[in-house]
Task: structure prediction
Amino acid sequence: MRHAEIVARALHLDDHARTTVRLGAYLHDVGKVRVPHEILNKAGPLTREEFEVVQRHPVWGIELLANVEFPWDIKPIIRWHHEKYDGSGYPDRLVGEEIPLSAQIVGIVDVYDALTTDRPYRSGLSIEAALAEITKCRRWWSERVFTAFLNTLADAPANVTALNERAA
Result:
């Protein structure tokens, strides 16, 4: 959530848009409550069928929140945070600017978080290794989002300090 807000700030989004990104980052995976525990915590690779179940979580998240009205437009983040700029994402295979900026921000930060944290099936990667993997997949995000994300990592100590002071 904090890193997504830092990227939103680097993109010069206004306060309302940054709040939208922050709340969307909090709730982006809410649909995973419908994914069976044994799939989410599986120690080995997922089967094709298991991965297809996991890929349903953005739609399930929207279904869970269908009757909830928010003063922020967070539902596009929940539905489209796994969409890729090149059209290879899910659930709707959006391409390019069809993907809301807020969903792209949460998406790139989510990939970074997934790569750098320990999972049941592998240890987290170093920052350098994660950046190498993200760079291999740079076509997944707009150049604007990719560059802002990289810049936030380069300025990480200053960004963390600023956010911690803001939260205090």
In short: The two ends are 16 Å apart (CA to CA). The chain has ten helices and no strands. The CA atoms of residues 37 and 54 lie 11 Å apart. The chain has a mean pLDDT of 91.
